[in-house]
Design brief:
Largest sheet: 7 strands, mixed
Helix content: 40-55%
Radius of gyration: 24 Å
Order of helices and strands: EHEHHEHEHEHEHEHHHHHH
Shape: elongated
Mean pLDDT: 91
Structural class: alpha/beta
Strand content: 5-15%
Number of strands: 7
Distance between the termini: 51 Å
Length: about 300
């Protein structure tokens, strides 16, 4: 059977509860696959504007009405709000038997949807491993994007079909592994943004006019090498055991950006441990280096400049 003869999946009326950055983008991707967005809910002014921009002509209605109109409902609210939302929808009788209920939280699997399942809903957890901007570019970035998928076995094909229709690649995550899976993504993506922003600020202080231009090729190469070779891609003074250079770094950071010292030391210690374990850092050089990294006494940071800050 060729592609023109293959039966098309059922076209679904799609609703979005929570017009943050994720929901409208996924609804647009489903629309491009032939499904029909019919309703969206949003509270903040930014959500209302985003819904109007990404899903023009789709009515903005309360969450219960979204469920009344939609066959497939995307629950795209913050992680901490998801359990109470699901419980509330179930208690009010808004959920219809046979309705596909999809949340996009990385933290949760389908257990969080149990109140909806008891009301007859079909639960799916589809988390796109992507950062979202709330603009059209998000829909394009879904092409080839991995989705962390958790679903009952009988809904596995439905989950795969929806992800593929949005342009993504399904990656199956066990229910009990969802928190670890999400922690791994946050460690890599969210902390990367913090590190890059700090690096750009420091380069600007050092007199670099266009820190982004300097870092772009370097970080692109580092990311590519890390994805290809893991710890084998480690370079720099920590992996080489250049204790003097690392000590100079710490000294300069204490003077010019004391709020970055704790993060630098923590990452450098982790880097040293991994470089040593993988034979990149020579044991005879590790002692002096770890001594520098352990000596965080130094001048105290000015009030309000240190500490950890979602």
């Amino acid at each position: 059977m060729n592609s023109s003869q293959q039966p098309r999946p059922a076209r679904l009326a799609v609703g979005v509860v929570g017009a943050g950055r994720v929901g409208p983008a996924l609804a647009r991707a489903l629309q491009q696959a032939g499904h029909r967005p019919v309703a969206v809910s949003g509270v903040s002014d930014a959500s209302v504007r985003r819904a109007a921009r990404m899903l023009p002509d789709v009515p903005l209605v309360p969450p219960a009405q979204v469920l009344e109109l939609a066959d497939l409902v995307l629950l795209t609210v913050p992680d901490d709000a998801l359990p109470s939302l699901v419980e509330g929808l179930a208690e009010t009788g808004a959920i219809r038997p046979g309705q596909l209920l999809v949340h996009t939280s990385g933290r949760y699997g389908t257990a969080v949807l149990d109140p909806a399942r008891r009301a007859g809903a079909l639960p799916l957890a589809l988390h796109p491993a992507m950062t979202f901007t709330g603009s059209e570019v998000d829909v394009q970035r879904l092409a080839g994007c991995s989705f962390g998928v958790t679903a009952p076995e009988e809904l596995r094909l439905a989950a795969e079909a929806l992800v593929i229709e949005m342009g993504g690649e399904p990656e199956w995550i066990a229910e009990e592994s969802r928190p670890l899976y999400h922690a791994a993504l946050a460690l890599g993506a969210n902390h990367l943004v913090t590190l890059v922003a700090q690096s750009m600020e420091l380069l600007h202080k050092a007199g670099v006019e266009h820190p982004d231009r300097m870092l772009g090729p370097l970080l692109g190469a580092a990311l590519d090498n890390a994805l290809r070779s893991g710890d084998g891609a480690l370079t720099g003074p920590v992996a080489r055991g250049d204790a003097g250079t690392v000590a100079a770094h710490v000294s300069e950071l204490r003077k010019h950006a004391p709020g970055t010292v704790a993060g630098y030391l923590a990452m450098a210690r982790t880097t040293a441990d991994r470089a040593l374990a993988h034979g990149l850092l020579k044991p005879e050089l590790a002692e002096d280096l770890l001594g520098v990294l352990a000596d965080d006494a130094g001048p105290a940071a000015a009030p309000g400049t240190g500490g950890g800050d979602r």
